[in-house]
Design goal:
Largest sheet of chain C: 7 strands, mixed
CATH class of chain A: Alpha Beta
Low-confidence stretches of chain A: 1-5
Shape of chain C: globular
Largest sheet of chain A: 5 strands, parallel
Structural class of chain A: alpha/beta
Number of strands of chain A: 7
Number of helices of chain C: 12
Order of helices and strands of chain C: EHEHEHEHHEHEHEEEEHEEHEHEHH
Strand content of chain C: 15-25%
Mean pLDDT of chain A: 96
Radius of gyration of chain C: 19 Å
Oligomer: heterotetramer
Bound molecules: thiamine diphosphate, magnesium ion
Number of strands of chain C: 14
Distance between the termini of chain A: 45 Å
Distance between the termini of chain C: 43 Å
Strand order of the largest sheet of chain A: 1-2-3-7-6
Shape of chain A: globular
Strand order of the largest sheet of chain C: 3-2-4-5-7-6-12
Chain lengths: 327, 327, 327, 327
Amino acid sequence: MPPIKRTKFKLTSEQLLEMFYWLKLIRAFDERLSILVKQGKVRSGVYTGIGQEAIIVGTCFGLRREDFICPLHRDLGALLMKGVDARTMMSQMFAKTTGLSKGRDSALHSGVNELGIFGNTSMLGANLPVAAGLGYTFKMEKSDNVVIAYFGEGASNVGDFHEALNFAGVQQLPIVFICENNQYAYSVPLEKTMAIDDVAIRAEGYGFDGVAINGNDVLAVYQATQGALARARGGDGPTLIECKTYRWHGHSEHDKAFYRTDEELAMWKSRDPIPTFTTYLRARHVLDDQKLKEIESKVEATIEDAVEFASSAPDPSPEDAVSDLYA
Amino acid sequence: MPPIKRTKFKLTSEQLLEMFYWLKLIRAFDERLSILVKQGKVRSGVYTGIGQEAIIVGTCFGLRREDFICPLHRDLGALLMKGVDARTMMSQMFAKTTGLSKGRDSALHSGVNELGIFGNTSMLGANLPVAAGLGYTFKMEKSDNVVIAYFGEGASNVGDFHEALNFAGVQQLPIVFICENNQYAYSVPLEKTMAIDDVAIRAEGYGFDGVAINGNDVLAVYQATQGALARARGGDGPTLIECKTYRWHGHSEHDKAFYRTDEELAMWKSRDPIPTFTTYLRARHVLDDQKLKEIESKVEATIEDAVEFASSAPDPSPEDAVSDLYA
Amino acid sequence: MSKELSYLEAIREALAEEMRRDPKVFVLGEDVGPYGGAFGVTQGLHEEFGDLRVVDTPISESAIVGISIGASQRGYRPVAEMQFADFISCGFDQIVNQAATLRFRYGGRATVPIVVRAPSGGNVGGGLYHSQNPEAWFIHRPGLKVVAPSTAFDAKGLLKAAIRDDNPVVYFEHKYLYRRAKGPVPEGDEVVPIGVAATRREGSDVTLVAYGAMMTPSLEAADRLAKEGVEVEVIDLRTLLPFDKDAIFRSLDKTNRLLIVQEDVKTLGIGAEISAVVMEEKFDRLDAPVMRVAYPDTHPPFSHILEGANLPNADTIAAALRKLAAY
Amino acid sequence: MSKELSYLEAIREALAEEMRRDPKVFVLGEDVGPYGGAFGVTQGLHEEFGDLRVVDTPISESAIVGISIGASQRGYRPVAEMQFADFISCGFDQIVNQAATLRFRYGGRATVPIVVRAPSGGNVGGGLYHSQNPEAWFIHRPGLKVVAPSTAFDAKGLLKAAIRDDNPVVYFEHKYLYRRAKGPVPEGDEVVPIGVAATRREGSDVTLVAYGAMMTPSLEAADRLAKEGVEVEVIDLRTLLPFDKDAIFRSLDKTNRLLIVQEDVKTLGIGAEISAVVMEEKFDRLDAPVMRVAYPDTHPPFSHILEGANLPNADTIAAALRKLAAY
Ligand SMILES: Cc1ncc(C[n+]2csc(CCOP(=O)(O)OP(=O)(O)O)c2C)c(N)n1
Ligand SMILES: Cc1ncc(C[n+]2csc(CCOP(=O)(O)OP(=O)(O)O)c2C)c(N)n1
Ligand SMILES: [Mg+2]
Ligand SMILES: [Mg+2]
């Protein structure tokens, strides 16, 4: 694969600010969820992606409505960016009827076909064959839409990963596989579960390119993704992009994460994707105090509104436990 | 991996002749089975490895009794070399009580722990996690025994392959993975099921070495295996050896194999591992007409005896259909 | 309507007609392409519909199902083939956790119109891994539909219904019937509705419920009983989930006696559920206990002696009917 | 005997004691190492027994089971942990086709002493993929044993028995009971034998059969009925395959009335088999139809309102008991 040029895919100031907004919104959403769990208002199913937002923003930014994403447990932001509004999203976490699952789920096991969002089961890796199936339909239609499929480095050890990437490779499907390598699968560090440094090299076994990049640099992620998307749309098949990152919180909000050191966490917090990007934007005069304040209040208002909406939304009723099983 | 030196692991004339015997015996066994199927004496479950014998002989030759093998549907010869006598093996194919499965199976779904032979299910790839488990016990015991695990190139697309090789890699298990790449998975040629030329490169994704060799050259297979075995016994972990070969018969004896050309088959028959090796042995004066005749009669006698034994061995009785389920 | 097809040809015709009718229908599986499938079911389809709609997949059962689910989310109606029903265990998770739950967790906003074809059943000398009847696992999973035709007519009509159904359907086609069952088939848009049993023989003394390859010995046993003055009403379930409780109850209201015949092993085969439901809802009508004739709780052995000992047959069924009639 | 442990501690103690007693026992699974497992069951084991005997595996359920089977063939007694019982679907093939059949196809010459621990059950706000009760799939598979303790005593005693058993055992530990069930535990070599039910309450009017977390509401309902003058005999199955038919029949001979309570979905849950067996063998003793109180045929929803609507409870159980008593 040719090296990624950060400047190859140009972004306007407006677009850069939009990216910034998403970074802030997604961070705020997850942070709020973390509090809501502690308050007992959201009961479970919360796996925050705090610290990993650059991956979601860099990969989802600029996608078409028709493009499909296959997000994972930490990728709530991907659903927001792909068009699920904050109220619906928050309702989902509150298990209210106004959520995607009508109260049957408070995690990300739901999707919206009209928005190009697939909702996976909990089974890690199981979204990847589905992504291959979605990609296969684009191939059948000779359309230039694409699929972005996410997985953790831990999930790259599951059989489904292998079967899916192999099929994508041999069929040259328009899929970009995004590995969110946050170093840990729950409590287990990468080196205890695979004898390689970069998940990216697994792509070679399937006949396409893999590249490992800084997953905390939203522009690096964006540039790499755009390159891969261009190839996919042009019929040149899949790419695997491994984004090195770190999750700040525990595996779930109940996990105290004693398995890692404070130093390690501190080191990664110093690589927080948001201040890095803020500095970049300020240096380029895209962002100033005024704009920052505007964006921050918009974010806050959106979250407040979503929480208020979800809190007062109707609970499901007992019949919903057995309905919608069959069409 | 350093290139294989054919001369690195020396073989005596006696050993070379023994290898030759096994090549002939395994070929004769499969050829006889093919006839027995046509005669209706063996009813099913016959997948011959005719044309692929060099892989079995080159990998099994010189193994310890304690070493384990995890053979596949075409690898009847591996069971013979590891110590199952021809009568028992033939009884298995006749579904007689004197077979490994006591008549419950006429294929290779049975093993013998005392001889270091694992018997897989039909599910392709399912033997590989088992091989990892066997290898893990050797690691726990700090023993220098090894496991040899076989799989077809087709089976290398199954999820279990991935999970097993990854575990073997990260745990540095004493396993040699042998890919019998005979170009086809049933009717489907390799290029329709994977976008790579060499299955061997998949090893990289698991952090160990893979090498592709001529699987029809028994000495090349032997040398490569010995190198991998030495590393495994020395604690240096697994190796994947991909042996390029071809099966002469159809997938099973019922398959007419219309999916390939006569030319292709003829080309591969010209690479028959047995005459190649015969020429080699004659040139080195290890084999002469006299010895050849001796070996051929021994092979014939062994097969005849096995067929006779199995034909007249007792059939299972109805109770055997429900016994031996629980210990 | 005078055209007669074999069961296998009927399946093929259903596929071809549905593929002609609806460009969203496509088939995928191992060897289903030019080869036409292990049993020849898909012969001719590749020639007519090409590579894109008749997909030779790698050996990857989990991916085959997952790909189907993915394609279904874009409005396609994939028909996936498991080469043998036995291998459905390798695609199990995608069926029970991904397909069966999707509509529910999507809050009813999506459908999963996939069909998984699974050649099942014994009496063909297949042994442990080519004879299984895995239907009960799926009958136990809400969100799925399960069908199992016994005639050429139903093979075609139920497959067409399954393809048009918006829910995931597991379609068990019995290998023993492939070339043995022959008869007229529905034409044009006629389908056999899912969920409706068929009364194959009227009678007022005992009700016999069966399906698949058990219909033939069941009807034979009923004929024998007729000579003894006992009129057996024989019901062919055709659909196993949801099964046609009303048809069973209607018959029971006449006979007050019920026998269930299944090729599946006894414990927790469908007979258990039917018996339990009859117990709950028809206890007061029963003149005798509901009885089951089933495969014993063991694995299908290869030997025809052993398999013969296990399979229900006209003798064992007739004996049970006599017991019931005399109760 | 005065020591009291929680159900979770009892499991941990069983593991520790068996590992101390027998060096061939080891545990493997995701996060079972230093972290001590998602629920803390294996806490302290890694410290005591080290890396080799407390193995943090990659996310690879199929391999986890396959590795266990492999190790068992060399005399080891692995205890594999599924992080949640729900994920057992990903290791399904290795359990049902590899482990359950091995002894049978080896002609009785081998055993498969593995235990698969599966934290199951709902009422913990887990939603669709952290609440399942997948026991019926395994009860339907000959060659396996299935247990499901309801008390700390049985949790320890059955796990010890399972580890010492030479057959593959699926051990369902109920998450709701982890910290809620407390009590004395067996000491030393005392085990709770597999296959033997326990009578938790004597009574002569109605027999109630349950297991796992359903014991508590069942006993509560029995207490209520006692106040109404109906004496309910409550049997805790403890082992689901093979279940203790004799214990049920003995009780039935007193009461002539039977209720089965299961957290599993109704259709083809174990209640179906018990009902069918009672029908077959005890029809003439029944004064009322065998009834079932079960989870409805749906998926476990996250919302506590919905889950509450689905779970059997003392009210619904008492209502069924009243119906039975009055029949
Ligand atoms: C098949 C399967 N096994 C186990 C789990 C339990 N589990 C949930 S998340 C997780 C760790 C995932 O690690 P990774 O893939 O790296 O993603 P991350 O959580 O780090 O983003 C585990 C083991 C699961 N969800 N699915
Ligand atoms: C999981 C699984 N899927 C499908 C099959 C059916 N099947 C048996 S052998 C075979 C082809 C195997 O190809 P390969 O692995 O290359 O081995 P070869 O037969 O060529 O030696 C197939 C598809 C199977 N046995 N197991
Ligand atoms: Mg991770
Ligand atoms: Mg092959």
